[in-house]
Design brief:
Keywords: Lipid metabolism. Pfam families: ECH_1 (PF00378). InterPro entries: ClpP/crotonase-like_dom_sf, Enoyl-CoA_hydra/iso. By secondary structure, the chain is an alpha/beta fold. It contains 14 helices and 12 strands. A hairpin with a 4-residue loop joins strand 1 and strand 2.
Length: about 270
């Protein structure tokens, strides 16, 4: 039987309040410079408001002086994120949908070049855009008893724009795993996700938070010189970042020629 991953201890350690829980996403930090972006929708699916809130929190992380690292996780113990909110998409006009997807892709690009070490604490399922959100972080640590990484667009009849494909190609070195993830919607559970390099480490659920904090503290010193760390990541992830911020590449040339998009947020 799977061990239960509880957020109660995390809430105590991070001093999460009832006011915090009223927000879709919020930021907590430790005295050692570890910043936590905590996703707090039911399954952490993406809306425009949600993505913009995450960007606002990233702005706050960037302002921190001294050792800095970022850990992202979902407060719901079963979900890291399930990606695009399909019900939300149904309420949007076509032009708004493309603009929204572009903003999602640019969030991935921002994380790929973010000036501090970024760790995704995969506490539950990471599907579709949520899988890409986890992968866009520098390091991924996953609980070993529950949760799947999956790109299920093929099952939904949905297209993966070039910008999204570029993130996957940048982060997944095992080409067979990349193929099966995209073309077969294969569900990678923790052990296989680790074996295929989708995640860097798997740990017992009761150790997940502590493991992420300890790792973040060990690498936070590299977040002191943010300008240099950003340059290193920009070169390392150059192709994917270019695709995320080039409108034609990010969502596809046809979308770029048909729709009007906002200027990128760099």
């Amino acid at each position: 039987m799977s061990k239960i991953f509880s957020t109660s201890n995390i809430e105590k350690v991070l001093k999460i309040t009832e006011e915090d829980k009223k927000q879709e996403a919020f930021l907590k930090k430790t005295e050692t410079g570890i910043h936590f972006i905590i996703l707090n929708r039911k399954v952490n699916s993406f809306t425009l408001q949600f993505i913009r809130k995450i960007n606002e929190l990233l702005d706050e992380v960037e302002k921190n002086e001294g050792p800095t690292a970022l850990v992202t996780f979902g407060l719901n113990p079963k979900f890291f994120s399930t990606g695009l909110d399909l019900n939300y998409l149904l309420t949007q006009e076509k032009n708004e949908i493309y603009a929204f997807i572009l903003e999602v892709i640019r969030l991935y690009g921002r994380l790929l070049a973010f000036p501090v070490p970024c760790i995704s604490m995969i506490n539950g399922h990471a599907y579709a855009g949520g899988c890409m959100l986890a992968l866009a972080h520098d390091y991924r640590i996953m609980r070993n008893d529950f949760g799947q990484l999956c790109m299920n667009e093929v099952e939904l009849g949905m297209y993966l724009p070039p910008g999204m494909n570029a993130v996957l190609q940048d982060k997944i070195q095992d080409k067979n795993a990349f193929r099966d993830l995209v073309l077969l919607a294969k569900k990678f559970e923790s052990k296989e996700a680790f074996q295929k390099g989708l995640v860097d480490k798997i740990v017992d659920p009761e150790q997940l938070f502590e493991e992420c904090v300890q790792f973040a503290e060990s690498v936070s010193k590299f977040g002191v010189n943010k300008e240099n760390f950003k340059k290193l990541k920009e070169e390392m992830n150059k192709n994917a970042i270019d695709c995320c911020f080039n409108k034609g590449h990010a969502v596809g040339v046809r979308a770029e020629t048909q729709f009007k998009f906002p200027n990128p947020r760099l």
